[in-house]
Predict the structure.
Amino acid sequence: MDTTFLKKLITTSLGRKSLMAVTGLLLGAFMLIHLGENLLLLKGETAYNGWVEFLLSNPVTPLLEFGLLLLFVVHITAGVWVRVEDFLNSPRGYEARRWQGGRTIGSATMLYTAAAILVYLLYHMLTFRFVDHSMGFYQMVTGAFRSPVFTSIYVAGSAALALHLSHGMQSAFQTLGLNHPKYTPLIKAGGWLVALAMLGFALISLYFLFNMDLKAAEAGFQVIIIR
Amino acid sequence: MKQNKQFNVTVRVWRQAGPGEPGKMVSYKVGDISPDMSFLEMLDVLNDDLLKKGEEPIAVESDCREGICGCCGLVINGDVHGPDEHSTVCQLHMRRFKDGDVITVEPWRSKSFPAIKDLVVDRSALDRIMQAGGFVSVNAGAAPDANSVPVDRDRAEAAMDAAACIGCGACVAACPNGAAMLFTGAKISQLALLPQGAPERAARALNMVEAMDREGFGNCTNEYECEAVCPKEIKVSNIARMNREFLLANLFSKR
C-alpha cells in the first residue's frame, strides 16, 4: 500500500496549507451551528435545556466532540507549522518597507487573532465544559453572560473570531484552488457574512448582560425571532 | 517640457562586499540629474563618479532596460520595483523624484535569494524550480500544422497572461512570508492551460511545488502583496490553479 500521497499532505507546503484550509472551513461551519444553538437562549430555558439534553443523551455526540477536537488539533498544528516556517523564511532587514495594498487588517493579524481565539477557546472550555452543570445549562450560560468580566472576554473573543474569519474563509477557498472569476466575488462576500455572523455571539451575551431578557419578560414581550 | 531643470538627490544604498559579509546603508550625493534619466542611468552616473574617485562602484544587475528581461529588481523607498505600479525598476524615471530627495535603495531580501554583492542577489532558486518541471518534453521534429492542435481562445489568453512572468522575483521580495508561489503558480499555469502541457501535468505540479519547498521559500498566506507589485500583473488566480493542480495530482493522479 502506497501512502506517499497522504504523507505529502504533511510534508509539502501546499499539503499543510490544504489541511489548514479544510479544517478551517469545517470549523467555520461548526461555528455557524454553534451560533444557531446559542440563539435558542433567546427562546428560553425550556428550549435551550431541551436541546442540550438531546445532545447529551445522543450516543453520537461524544464522537462528534472528538471529531471537533481533531479539527482543532489539525488546524492549529498546520497553522503553527506554516507560520513558524513563514517566520523563518520571511524577508528581514529592509530599511524601508511599504505594504502595497494586498494585505488587509484581517490577513495581517491572522496569527494574533488565532492566539486570541485559542485563549478564548480554553477559557470557554474551563467555564462551560469542565464545570459542574447541576444548576442547569441555561442558568449556567446566562449567569455567566450577566457578568461584565465574562461578557467582555466573550465579546473580545467573538471580535477576534470575526476578524480571523474575514480573511480565513475566502483564503481557505483560494488555498484549495477554488478560484473562479464567477464565484470568487461571491465567496469573498460569503466569507464576510460568516465573519460578521460571529458577532452574533457577542450580541447574545450582551443581551443577557443588560438583562434584556428579564426586561422583555417584565414588559410582556416574547422574543419573536424564534417561536 | 514640464520639468527640465537638472537636480540633486541623496541616494542611500545597501553596500555589501560579498556573500556573507556584513552590509550597511551608505549615502551618496548625486548631482546634475536630468528628469529624463532612468533610475538605472542615475546609478550609472553615480558609479562613474565613484570610479573617478577610485572607489568601488555599486554592483547592480540590469540587462534589457526595457522591462522584459526580469534582471533588474530593487526596493526603492520601501517599494518593490520602485513607486510606479506594475513596473520594473528600469522603467522608473528620475522625474518621479524631486530636488533634495533622499532615496533608499535596497536589494531583494529573502533567505532563498542569498546576497552576492551590494544590490545583486542570487535568484537561481527560481531556475531550479523551473528545472524541476517548467518545460514540455517533446520529440523535436517538423513543426506541426498550426491548426492540428485546437486551443480555446480564452485558455490561450490565460496561458499567455501567465507566461508574461519574467521571473524577476518581485513577488518573493514583496511577500510577507518570502513565498515564491506567484512565480511557481504562473510557471505551472502557463503549461497546465495548454494541450501541449497536458501529458506531464501531474508530475510537473508535484515536482515544481516540491522544488519550491526545497529552496526554502515561505508559505502563501493569501495576502496578495505579490499581485500588487508584479510588473507583469500576474494574477493570484494562478496560485489557486497551482494549488488545484497540486492537490489533483497528489490525490487523484496515478503518480
